[in-house]
Fold:
Amino acid sequence: MRLISAGARVAGVLFLVAIAGACSESLDASAGCPDLCASQNGLIQTITIDPVVLDTTVSSLTGQGTEGTILMANRGDTVDSRAVIRFDSIPDRFTPNAGDTTTQAVTTADSVMLRFNIDTAGAKLPGPVTIDAFDVNSDAPDSLISAVAALYTPANLLASKTYDVADLKDSVFFPIPGSVIVSHVGHRLRIGLRARAAGSVQFRIFAVQSGTPEQLRYRVSSDTSVKAIVLAPFSQTPTNQAQIAASLSDYTVLVKGTPPPPPDLLAVGGLPAKRVYMRFVVPPFVVDTAQIVRATLLLTQRPNRSVDPTDTIRIVTYVSLAVKTVIDVTRASQIITIGSSDTAKFTPGDSGVKEIEIPQVIALWHSQKVDVTPRAIVLASTTDGQLALEARFFSIEADPALRPRLRISYSTRKSTGLP
Structure:
């Protein structure tokens, strides 16, 4: 991360503005004029500037367990990602019938099924997949992932089941021995899931945050008139923070993530999830008076062939709303609003100059007071923390020809009305 003098940047920007006429063009707008078009048959000027004064890669994490899906991945020596599903209150008594005023102790359990829903987007299924379930109950701090990861051992194995590829879609039912429920009656049952196959495997499970939570279902009586017990994920820790406890009902255990990018590169995506924060200084007239026809962020991509280099990662642009008193850029990258209705598509293993259209960002900057809210954007993956795909770009620390730039087409002529 490097902060370039704002004064130096502005000087360079104004110089480029002064020679903007050299790259002007007259566009024929007689066929129709969209909202971004400034005038009919007007002179459109285009400038390319180096307005970025700060860019850096920051963490995308908004809190453990806040992801909408949980990645189940076993990618050899690259990514190892697992799931934890907590059922912190296994009932020790049940009511035989709805009208009964007495309860009975739970002494048996059968037809035990853990149900979860599969998201196959981005899945890698080389053949039959085996899912292992482990008892990962731990008194270690909730945030200590290493302590939980250490519990995925043969001694803690609860059950295993192998599925054909065709079976890993929609709802998946995973059988668990009844003895597991009986031995946890009145206590908590925390299940850790791990996937494995003959080759590299990955898929996602819909988490509680998605609105389609996992479910643990079992019968406690041979009498079929007695309703089965159905439990949703539930965490009782941390005991004094209900919101965090709710997030920890299920979460990702990232045993091994993607390698960090070199210090002179910007990274979007990956595991743990990363995003890019970029702060700009632009000529005042661009935001205040010019009518923007087009605004394009130009980034030079560096190939990243570590994981799925030919797949597609989608990147969305946000505008930071953090005021200048927020000096932590990681925090500033979380205080955002959508800056573009479009998503840009990238192939991680690709290279060269790439374009991200951001005309709406300029419009949002117009509503901000620059002395209060720095002009900044955030680039993030649409699958933050859910897939290992990662796109990398050169930062302002790279050679001048590789640095981020901004190309703006604009008109200073006021519109005379609709066509």
Notes: Residues 80-256 form one domain. The chain has seven helices and 26 strands. The helical segments are 6-18, 145-149, 178-183, 242-247, 284-288, 329-332, 359-366.
